[in-house]
Amino acid sequence: MRAWMLIAGLGVSLAACGATAGASEGIDGEAAGGKAAKALWSTFGDKFDASAPVVPIKDVLDAPANFVGKPLTVQGTVADVCQKAGCWMVLGDGARTLRVRMADHAFSVEKQGTGWTAQVQGEVVAKPLDAAMVEHLRSESGKPEAMPEVAATGGTVYELVATAVRMKP
To answer: How far is CA 38 from CA 35, 41, 91, in A?
Structure first.
């Protein structure tokens, strides 16, 4: 009986170790055991509202000022991720990019997520371009050529402050 309890406890411990803090997995918005799997999403931050309408990153990049202060869900390809802590990432449409910061550094995302598809829920903010911050971000970047700050004009850069993120390869 004692051996059985030890084995059961070990199994529970190993299952818990396989989970990433702050991350959960689902199948295209379905809970485990849902419909046939298309691809597995890893979710970070707050509960992700899979029913929210999705805005393509291209639309946000075309007119970022139109989205400032409005809650939205954006989808794009991950062009870069903070290699120090996963506390920011860059989404792109192939030619242009937008930085995504995790709200209040409350969570982080998969550092090996470059090239993955991501959906991000949050708000767009306009910030003054800060040379010291640009250098800080460059020091954490795996792909500095994807930095949206390099292409920013007029001294303003737009960012998406994320409350929830889901990513899939």
So the answer is: 9, 10, 22
